[in-house]
Predict the structure.
Amino acid sequence: MDIDTVLYVGASAALVALVISGMHNYGILAIPVAILGGIVLFAIFTLNFADFLIFPLITKRLNVEVILSKEHKVPKSQNCVLKYVNGLYYATGYLTGNIYKYVFAAENATPEEGQGLDEGPDKWERIVMNTPFPFKFNLISSAEDVQKYREDLEGQRGYLEFQLSKEEGASNPNALTIREMQRKINVLQTRIDRISEGELPTYSTMYIESTAVGVSEKEATDLLNEQLGHLQTVFNAFDLSIIRIVGRELHILYGLNYRLMGTEEMSKHFQIQN
Amino acid sequence: MPNSQLMLFIALIGVALIILVGSSVIHIQILDGVLALLTLCVAMVAFLTKNYLYLFDSIVKKKGKDLVVSSTEAFAFSSSGNAIIRREKGDNVYASCFIKIPIYKSATEMTKEEKTNLAKLFGRVLALSKVPMKLSAQLYVVNKDEYITKLRNTLNEAEEKYREAQSFGIDEKLANMERARGRVTMWRDLLNNVSSSQSKALALYAMVSALGGNDEEAANIAYQKAEELAGGISATLGVNASVASGNEILTFIEPDYMIPRETVTERIMQKSMGEN
C-alpha cells in the first residue's frame, strides 16, 4: 500500500471511527449514525480495494452513463468506451497486460529468463498471426529519478550482503540460499553498473486494447467481449496477468490515447513495474 | 499526486474535524447527532477525492441522467498538423506527438541471438526518454477501397481488350485472345483474392506529451521531444523513425480510422449474404 492510500484510508476511517465512538452523545440519532458510519467505513475500504466492483454496480443501479467527450461515452456497465460514427458503434475495451520483466530486463538473465528473451519475438508474431481483429499492445514507460533509484539499489544490495554474511557465518549454512543471494546481489550490481554507464532506470505500465464495431451498441459490445476473451487466451503465452479493466481506470486509459500523464500521476492510478 | 488534490482532502478532513469538535461543545443530543451525520458525509466526500475528483464537477452540474465529464471534442489538431491538442480542466493545454517506427523484420528470419538482441534493444528504447513515453504496437484494418477500385478499373480495361481481341482476324485473334484472356483471369483472381478478406497491418509507434501555456507552445515542446526521441529510436533500432502527421495520427488514436468504415460495410454485406 502506498503512502497516499495509507493517508486517505487512514484519515477517513479514523474520522468515522471517532464519530462512532461518541455514539452515546447522539440520543435518538445514535442508531442512524452507527448505521451510516458502518456504511461509510465499508464504502471506504471497498472503494479503495475493489472500486472496479462497486463503481459499475452504482452506475448500473442508477442507470448512469459517463460522457467522456462529445463523441465518446462509457455505458452503464463501465466496461468499454463507445463512439458513434455515421450509424456505426465502435466499442473499445482494455485489459491489463503486465508482461513479466524478463522480456525487457536483460541483466544477468537466468536460463529460463534468457529463454523468455529468445522466445519473445516469436510469441508476439504468433499472437499477431492468430488475432483476426484489431488490437493494440501499449507500454508506457517513464524514467525514474536516477539518484533515488541508485540509492534504493545500493540499499537493497547492502541488506542482501548483510544477510549473505549472516548466512555464511551460520553454523549450518544453506548452499542454495547463499547461491540465490549471490545471484540477487549480482543482478543489483549489474543494474547499478548500467546506471553508472548512463542508462536511465524506467517504470513501465502495460495494457492491451481492442476495438470492435457493430451496427448497434449491443452488437459492438458483444463482439468486443469475444475479442477480449480471445486476446486473454492468446496472450497467455506471455505468462501475463490479464484482467478486464472497468470503471475509473477505463476512463483514465481512454485519456491516455490523447495525452500521457507524469510518473507520479501514473503511479497513483496504476501498479507500475521497474 | 497533485498537491491541490491533497490539499483539498486535508481541507475536507479539517472541516469534518471542526464539525465534530463543534458537536462535542454544543451538548444538545439531536444537534450532536445531525452534526455527526454531517461529519460522516464530509469524511466520505474527502475520501472520494482520492480517485473520483474528476467526476465531482459533473455530479454537481448534473442535469440529465448522465455524468458529463466533457462535452467538447476529445482533441484538436495543432496548426502544424503533427500534434494533437487536448485541453483539460484548469486551463491546462497538453500536446501529444506520435512517432512512426517502421520495422519490417520478422522473427522467423532471425537467429536466436538476433531475437535476444531485439528484445534487449527494445529495453534500451524504453530508457531513451526522460519524460513518459508510450510505445504501442497496433494491428489495424487496412482500407483497401482505393486499391480495389484500381484493380476493378484494370480488370475492366483487360475485359475491354479481350472483347476487342475477339473481333480481330482468325490468325491474330487466337494469339491476342489467349493473351487478353490470361490478363482477365489474372486480374479477376487478384480482385477476388484481395476483396475476399480483410487485410491487416501492424504498426509500431511511440507517443510523447507536453504541457504548455497555449496550443502553439505545447505543440512545439511536444514536437521537439518527439524529434529527439525519433532520433534516439532510429539510432537504437536502426530504423528510420519519423514524426507522424494528419491521418496517420488518426489511425493511432481513433477507432473509426483503426477500422475504416468501408471495411465494415464490406464485412456486413458479406455477413448478410452468408446468412441468406
In short: Residues 30-62 of chain A form the longest helix (33 residues). The radius of gyration of chain A is 24 Å. Chain A touches chain B through 95 residues (CB under 8 Å). The beta strands of chain A are 66-67, 72-74, 81-85, 88-96, 135-143, 202-214.
